[in-house]
Request: fold
Amino acid sequence: MSTALIIYGSSTGNTESVAETIEEYLSGHDYEVTVKNVADVTIKALEDPYDLYLLGCSTWGEEEIELQEDFEYFYEDMNGSLNLADKKMAVFGCGDSSYLYFCGAVDVIEERAENLGVQILCKSLKIDGDPEDEEINEWTQEVINAAEKK
Ligand SMILES: Cc1cc2nc3c(=O)[nH]c(=O)nc-3n(C[C@H](O)[C@H](O)[C@H](O)COP(=O)(O)O)c2cc1C
Reply:
């Protein structure tokens, strides 16, 4: 059995529900999954040993990218003092494509993680509007496949 850690930030519950769908899918595919609201963890959680890390964050702001407010602090702490070399990660989040930076938070988190040596397993999941299980499950399967290959 493999282990996965999902950390999400969500203001109106959309990214939280995506995190739960991912959890369910992984649990049904031989993963032992821990899910945490970003408001309840510190950056040190990323140093705990898991086979897979999934970070989820919604995007706010209008003219510029704003991360979901609880995730801001976590993101600020994603800096050079962390050793995340070779950890396997994928990033997801909810947004709305009518905004200038659709799911911009996902992009900046992914970029920062890569700078810290993380292996990004596959293209991020950007949900436009209401989350649908089918899209989420397909993506989660892609993550599993990529994690097994690398
Ligand atoms: C004031 C405001 C600003 C937003 N800005 C963006 C944005 O810049 N990019 C984007 O993709 N979505 C944006 N959204 C959409 C939210 O990210 C979307 O509603 C999302 O589902 C919220 O997820 P959460 O419930 O997990 O926080 C914005 C929504 C509001 C109300």
